[in-house]
Write a structure and sequence with these properties.
alpha/beta, Rossmann fold, 7-stranded mixed β-sheet, 6-stranded parallel β-sheet, about 15% strand, elongated
């Protein structure tokens, strides 16, 4: 099949590369000439494990090319995927569809033969019908169908998600479009991965429903974690206890500093806005958004308490600022709320993140970037683990504790245990949902080890 992929952001680039690896001929187009130049030289503008090798392999095989020429990319294509951004629109919380509609308007004049115009971007219900209207208005004689094909890619594991998906969702209006989409996904069909064919509206809503539900699980367990801290329970044990229940499952039950990233914040906001527009309030989703914002503020309070009530003149080492490990994505990361609070409170902040600085330089002004957690912790008053990169999972806590001006640890990802921190010599420790914060100087070593 001949595929044109409009947009070489996270979704567009991963999808285009993986489609080419299926054996299709793919042209990825983007208006950003600098990004295209990078891609043509084999450089990937985002960090996603394994993507660079897979991309270059298919470029060398002649199945994948990059261009800024939309007309050339679309010409003779069997399917044209729109994979542009749909960020939250300022003022009303709705998804900004201006990039999607602009792409549709540019596609329209180039349609000379039948093609399926596929929306890969995450879009609210009704968007694909609007895409059809835009194309028809610009080119009434165009022979085409529209389709909705939402993505379900986890950053850091996107290639595996694409190649071995839980399901593929395709929303279509005609048998002709369904056949084109079936041919595109034939390699997955032959390996018995579920391919669900629906109407347009159902496909659009499936994506939002899935993300809102996962965001709800995260927010729910974070709320339970707050209760654990008050009653002295352990959120890790509570999560395991409910996760064994097959009706609940153990995924997305890890307490932390709140959800972030490119999907959950904007998609929950867009779903809530859609509910308001259709006079069907999404009350649970609206509560999730509010509670998640509160979780970040609760993390700031934890850090302030560990600093004796004030960040002023304190040195704080922060490990990890991307919204999750194995990505360089900073969009709506908890760090964008927590770190500015530290800086604004007068703290000197040192940041270590394997891939966060590329975006973080502009997003986190006033911090010092280091490449070594031990250097960052030296003479610091507080160490904060904010993103659970593998590099931070086996630190020499003894070495860190003895090098700090005040050995205090805020483990906001629950990587370590209280006993581990105690044995290493930390004088104060706090985590998420681990009971009340403990001052080891008051309780004593023996009492803690005996637990």
């Amino acid at each position: 099949m001949r595929i044109a992929m409009i947009g070489t952001g996270y979704v567009g680039l991963v999808s285009g590369v993986c489609f080419s690896d299926f054996g299709h001929n793919v042209v990825c187009v983007d208006k950003d000439s600098r990004k295209i130049a990078m891609l043509e030289t084999g450089e990937v503008p985002i960090y996603e494990p394994g993507l660079d090798a897979l991309m270059n392999r298919n470029v060398e095989a002649g199945r994948l090319v990059f261009t800024t020429d939309l007309e050339a990319a679309v010409k003779d294509a069997d399917a044209i995927f729109i994979a542009v951004g749909t960020p939250t629109r300022r003022g009303d919380g709705h998804a900004d569809l201006s990039y999607v509609m602009a792409a549709a308007a540019e596609i329209a004049p180039t349609l000379s033969e039948y093609a399926v115009v596929v929306t890969k971007s995450t879009v609210p219900v009704g968007t694909n019908r609007r895409v059809r209207e835009v194309i028809v208005a610009a080119n009434p004689d165009a022979d085409f169908d529209v389709a909705s094909n939402p993505e379900f890619l986890r950053e850091g594991a996107a290639i595996d998600d694409f190649m071995r998906p839980d399901r593929v969702v395709v929303g279509v209006e005609s048998e002709r479009a369904a056949k084109v989409m079936a041919e595109i996904y034939r390699p997955l069909f032959l390996r018995d991965f579920p391919i669900l064919t629906t109407d347009l509206e159902s496909a659009e809503l499936i994506k939002y429903t899935a993300n809102a539900f996962l965001a709800t699980k995260i927010t729910f367990i974070n709320e339970i974690a707050a209760l654990c801290e008050r009653v002295g329970a352990d959120i890790k044990q509570v999560s395991r206890g409910i996760g064994f229940d097959g009706r609940i499952g153990n995924k997305f039950l890890h307490a932390g500093p709140g959800y972030g990233g490119s999907c959950f914040p904007k998609d929950t906001a867009a779903l809530a806005r859609t509910g308001q527009e259709y006079a069907c309030p999404m009350q649970i989703t609206e509560a999730v958004i509010s509670v998640n914002d509160g979780v970040k503020q609760r993390m700031i309070s934890k850090l302030r308490d560990l600093c004796g009530g004030s960040f002023n003149n304190k040195t704080v080492a922060v490990l990890g600022v991307t919204f999750k490990p194995n990505t360089d994505d900073m969009r709506d990361a908890p760090s964008l709320t927590i770190v500015p609070a530290l800086v604004g409170g007068g703290a000197k902040v040192r940041v270590v993140d394997p891939h966060g600085q590329r975006e973080g330089d502009a997003l986190l002004p006033g911090v010092d970037w280091l490449d070594d957690p031990y250097r960052a912790a030296k003479d610091a008053d507080l160490l904060v683990i904010l993103t659970e990169w593998n590099e931070f999972r086996a630190l020499d806590l003894d070495r860190i504790a003895t090098s700090m001006a005040a050995a205090r640890l805020a483990d906001l990802r629950n990587i370590y245990t209280r006993n581990e921190a105690l044995r290493a010599g930390f004088e104060a420790y706090d985590a998420v949902g681990q009971g009340l914060p403990v001052d080891f100087g008051e309780r004593g070593f023996g009492a803690e080890v005996a637990e």
